[in-house]
Amino acid sequence: MRLRRFIFLSVAAVVITLTLLFSIITRHQWVDFSKKLVKDRKNFIAHLVEANIHAKENLLKESANLIQRNGELASSFLLTEEIKDSHILSEEINKLRKNNPSINVAVKPLNSSNKKITWENHGNKISIVHFSTLYHFNRPVADLQLTTPLLDDSLSQIMDMTSSKINFESKNGNLFPYFLSQFPGLYFQIVLADNSMVSMAENLTTTLLLTGIVSLILMGIILYISLSRKLIYPLHRMTDHLVNQSERLKHGLMPILSDFSESAFQEIKQIQKTTDQFSISLNSFRDIIEDKSKKAALVEMAQQVAHDIRSPLSALKIASQLIENNLKINESNDLMKKSILRINDIANDLLSKKQTLENNHDEQRIVADPIRTKETFMLSSMVDIIISEKRMQY
Q1: What's 256's DSSP letter?
Q2: How many Å apart are CA 327 and CA 335, to the nearest integer?
Q3: How many domains does the structure of the chain reveal?
Q4: Among 6, 330, 332, 353, which residue has the least CB neighbours within 10 Å?
């Protein structure tokens, strides 16, 4: 696998993993936030309901305080008791109702009940009831009962304002989780009719999620481009340079120094510098080995030439002695001719071996180094001239 593909796959895997984690975390946070938002909204509505009921209680108490000392109402009640006629009492009650139309006032015979305020359910209509005593000259004459409906215009305004519906029930349950502390046994339920805030939160979360995903993708692209420019491209250049250096060394050419000064990483610069030094050292070491090989071959050739030339030289020496003694001149001439031919063959063989050695070891260096080629050509020419002169002498 190439480094570029490996880094691309690695960056893609990291981006996908981070995107999935971000999506899961964001989704989980959105669910919790939505639940908390709904819960807080319902709690707010519940506080409004409690405040509304508390205001109704205070209104009943204030109205009761005003009516308790109503002498006309007390007189009407006493008169009713005497003449058994409730017409006069009804007129007085109607007068009181005009001041507070939402409050129902009832006067009943005196009872020993200690109830001050409670709730009643008549035909699925829940009302708040306040009990007090009607006095006539500081003497209790009757019970005063003030009633107001729980679901009135003020509570309807709360439901309209909060886009909700409020249901009351006399028993608890999962559907009726809220209760009124001042009214034991009375519970209520809040149903949200408008989930605009939840929808807005969901849209906000979706926007945040998409923004995060796009940001992660852009971050991955920027990271990949940065790694490509700062790491992959210099390593690719270094690889091509090393391959080129290897080919040049294989063909006997001098290594070329590279320039990685624009690289952002000091390690890449150091690796390339060390590689160039190693290539130069390797080239020098190869030259040393070739020189030693040539010297060893020349020494071996010299030993062989010395060994081969001893016999014809010995024969020439004998022929020379015979000529000095004027003995067997013809035989001496034949011996000298054979020795000269033998020496000539040795010289030709030496030139042939020299040519073979040059072809085997310096074929590429002849192409790459014209100065050495010229020196070798001149040396070969000089050897040929010397051999030709010796042939003419003998």
Answers
A1: P
A2: 13
A3: 2
A4: 330
Q: How many CB atoms lie within 10 A of CB 319?
A: 21
- What mean pLDDT is reported for the chain? 71
Is 186 exposed, middle or buried, given 0-12, 13-18 or 19+ CB atoms closer than 10 A?
A: buried
Is position 217 within any domain? Answer: no
Q: What's the one-letter identity of residue 59?
A: L
> Tokens 């005009």 map to which residue?
98
Nearest C-alpha neighbor of 266 from the set 228, 231, 237:
231
Are 57 and 118 a contacting pair, CB within 8 Å? no
Residue 95 lies in a domain: yes
- Note the pLDDT tens digit of each residue in 102-133: 778 777 777 755 567 888 877 678 888 888 88
Amino acid at 70: N
Residue 236 included in any domain: no
Of 164, 181, 204, which residue is a domain's last? 204
Are 24 and 142 contained in the same domain?
yes
What pLDDT, on a 0 to 100 scale, did the predictor assign at position 382? Answer: 46
Are 280 and 255 spatial neighbours (Cβ–Cβ below 8 Å)?
yes
- The predicted structure's pLDDT at residue 285: 75
Q: Quick one: tokens of 381?
A: 């020419």
pLDDT digits (tens, 9 = 90+) for 231-258: 777 777 777 777 777 777 676 666 666 6
* 85 falls within a domain: yes
